[in-house]
Every structure is written in C-alpha cells, then in structure tokens.
Request: fold
Amino acid sequence: MVGRVIATGGGSARGGRPRDGLACERLWASVMAADREARKCDVALADRGGTILRDFVRPSLDAGGAYETLRALVLKATAEAESQGLLVSSLVVGLPAIIDPDTGMTLGSPWDFGGSGLVRRLAQDVRVPIAVENAASLSALAQARPGLRNFPALSLAPGVGSRSLSNGHLLRA
Reply:
C-alpha cells in the first residue's frame, strides 16, 4: 500500500491555537489481470494481496473479435482504477495457448492476437508493464503459498493444461 499525508482541517482547540488534523490517504497499488477463455473474457482489478476489487466480464467475442473484447475490458478497468485513485502497477494476460517466453508469441491459440503484437497493441492504451502468460501457468502461480512451493498443477478449463512449480518458480520445458 502506498499513500500520502493530507490535511483534514482544524481540530477542536481548548483555549489555544486550533490543531491541524493529518491523515494518510490510501492509494492502493493494484494490478489488472485478464483471463481469456473460450466463452468469456474476464479482467479483474486486484490489490497486490490478490483481493479482487472489481471484476469486468463479457462474452469472448462481445466487441466483435477476441482482441477488441479484451481491449474494451482493459480500458474499462483502467478507467475504474483512475476514478478510484488506484495506481495500477501491471497488467497480466492469461491465454489458453502456448506462449514463447522470449518473444511473447502465442502459439496454438484459437484466437488471432497478432502473435507478439498483443503486448504492443495493448501498450498503446495502457501505460504499465504488460505480461502475457499461459493460463495454466498463472493458475499454478496463484496456488503457491509460503508453505506450498513445490507441486504440479492441472488445469481442466477451457482445455487441459499443466504446470509444475519448484521452489515457487514455474518449471519450463
């Protein structure tokens, strides 16, 4: 959490100079997470602890195409964050596809995101770091806990995927 000190006005005085009140205005550092599935696209605004603050969901092809639907929800979440005074630190997009970690290219996706162009295209609208990752990988990372850092994870929706964590890190083939 980050914040700033603000003046809240004078307090009650008992025979002297009135006190100035100070308070910490909370500005939560938050993240946007986009999950692209066969039937729906889900963009969540969450705090860094993983608590979802606001969720935006639409059918996958609601705005005409896969990218357009994703972009529309990202813009909606960005506007919500700005209206709430939230500082968005990053955007993570989970896709049901093979992701080349070096180039960000999506392979085997049922939707055309323009390969590595997805990050470039989203970066025109969102001024935060953007990461694209396989949805099963993100699911495995979400299950990691301080006492649970080595395990395999199996994802069954929308397709079948798996990933393993070792010492809290994704194992890549």
Notes: DSSP finds three helices and twelve strands in the chain. Residues 34 and 146 are 25 Å apart (CA to CA). The chain has a mean pLDDT of 75.
